[in-house]
Design goal:
Shape: rod-shaped
Helix content: 55-70%
Number of helices: 3
Largest sheet: none
Order of helices and strands: HHH
Mean pLDDT: 78
Distance between the termini: 127 Å
Radius of gyration: 47 Å
Length: about 150
Amino acid sequence: MVKVEIVEEKEQDSRSPYSSPSSSRTSSSVSLSSVGSELDGEESFYERIVALADIIPPTTRQSISTKLGNTVGALKTTGKVVGNLVWIVTTSALLIGLPLALVLEDEAKIVQQEKEMLAQQQGAQMLAPPGSLYPQPGQPQNPPKSPL
């Protein structure tokens, strides 16, 4: 756990070049607050960002710019490759998959019709007696013999 203590400055430390009398400290903070409030209305967000360029050294700015440019280039390339792959898969599915699905559906319909016809023939055979005047489906029809 961290314990924070406020340390009071002593008068002996006034010999240090970094120390300042307490009155100058308060006056500088007051002046900074008044300057900050004056600049808020005059300065835009863009101007503040542009002003940050002076704070960052040129080598660091160049490094950031290079890395950002490389990242953007990689994202563009990746997006283009992914877009091409999606296009290839989509057109392949439409050109190959759709006709294949339609053919399979037609084949299933034909098989279903064949099953229904077979069921009808079996039902007719079960209902018709063996010596019936009506021929069974699938057998040639013999004309009745005339008594002449």
